[in-house]
Amino acid sequence: MKKMLLKPAIILFAIIFSAAAAAQAGSGQPGDGKTGILLVTFGTTFPEARAAFDNVEAKIKDAFPDATVNWAYTSEMIRDKMARQGKKVHSPRQAIEEMAGQGVTKIFVQSLHTIAGYEYHDLVKTVRKFQHNPGKVEEITITGPLLAGPEDMAKAARAIRDTLPQARTSDEAVVLLGHGTHHPSNAAYPALMWRLQLADDNIFIGTVEGFPGPDVILAQLEQNNISTAWLMPFMSVAGDHVRNDMAGDGADSWKSILAAADIEAKPVLKGFAEYEAFVDIWVNQLQQAMDQ
Ligand code: CO
Q: What is the four-CA torsion angle of 72, 73, 74, 75, rounded to 10 degrees?
């Protein structure tokens, strides 16, 4: 407060400057600060995993230079953990309210989730509440997740093929590891695997918490006489599940389970949001929403 009182001239200048900028941009035009994108992810506490988020933000800002870009985490557990580290991350509702308070009237909520599971549907509910009771928000739309529909499913399959490790030979398997869920949308994982296997018998999608689990995938690998398998996250960031459940040294990690069956595992510690091919799918979803 004291600091602000000492600098009234700067504040006055800032007000005049932003008023001039607003006048120049005109009301309701791109770049007038009224259009905002809210990127919503489960979240991660791993600083090294956040490279994926930096990549997404850079790509989104590049594609939509006139929109403000904000973040929200759907995981309360992650938000609490971050808060204890002194880093405030908003829930989707808090972020939307903050954006509205800053004069953003047209909000595009982009779900960065992989499938339309519980997290995504909770987000839909939040967005609907604002649609029914908008307050300052004139327009709010939700897009995503990655596997939102058949078209996105085809794009994701292509993105997977485009980002396979270059050193991988065709007799080596690639096991993509998704999160998995008890929500019916878990079906998207085996559906995507089926699509991938139309072109390549040795690509598999397993899950940490859903179907198929390691026993099912291991049986498939053995059936295909696989001796080497690349383990790749099919999660946006390489966080806890990737570093521990996929590539950890514990006896029940995917790496260890494969090793026990004499299959050499080669883990790749990169979330799919670190690859342009995947972020492009989200950029495209946003673009379609804005064009409507
Ligand atoms: Co989990």
A: -160
